[in-house]
Amino acid sequence: MTINDVKIVKLPKFSDPRGNLSFVEQLNHIPFEIRRTYWIYDVPGGENRGGHAFKENEEFIVALSGAFDVIVDDGEKKKTFTLNRSYYGLYVPSGLWRVMENFSTNSLALEFGSIHYDVNDYIRHYDDYLKMKKDGTI
Ligand code: TYD
Fold first, then answer.
1. Maximum pairwise Cα distance, the chain
2. Residue 95 C-alpha to ligand 1 middle, in angstroms?
3. Residue to mutate, 37, 52, 68, ligand 1, most ligand atoms under 8 Å from C-beta
């Protein structure tokens, strides 16, 4: 996988004077079956989350509220995706290093995953990630 496999997905948006509505469907806007949903909130200014890669887990990330950046890195190239609208999602395939930063006050990051939580699915050290990319084990 490379950063070219990361995709911004525009979600449906029903604009309404009573308030807008958007939605996501698995195997439609999200290209995998959802096994897990979690959210990141109350991030103090200047903090970052998620400096790691997943061996198997695919992700779909939505900024339900506020804004933050997702920096994706395939070992050769890096790309920053700014999420700041609740009707856009970011698809991140497995095998990519990613960090989330620049969280705005009261931002809310919703994340869908393709597998259940598994501590062994994480690669937590960038050096290990680069090694695995080099030897083709990720
Ligand atoms: P972690 O994925 O390490 O957060 P980040 O990469 O954003 O810094 O998760 C933080 C803690 O939350 C970790 O100790 C395990 C727990 N956790 C779960 O139990 N289930 C989950 O689905 C997730 C994402 C985390």
1. 55
2. 17
3. 52
- Looking at residue 91, its pLDDT comes to 98
Do 41 and 59 contact (CB within 8 A), yes or no? Answer: no
**Residue written as tokens 């200047």?**
46
- Gap between the Cα atoms of 133 and 96, Å rounded: 9
pLDDT of amino acid 116: 98
Annotate 69-112 with three-state secondary structure. EEEEECCCCEEEEEECCCCEEEEECCCCEEEEECCCCCCEEEEE
pLDDT mean for each 10 residues of the chain (138 residues): 97 98 98 98 97 98 98 98 98 98 98 98 98 96
Burial class (CB in 10 A: 0-12, 13-18, 19+), 1: middle
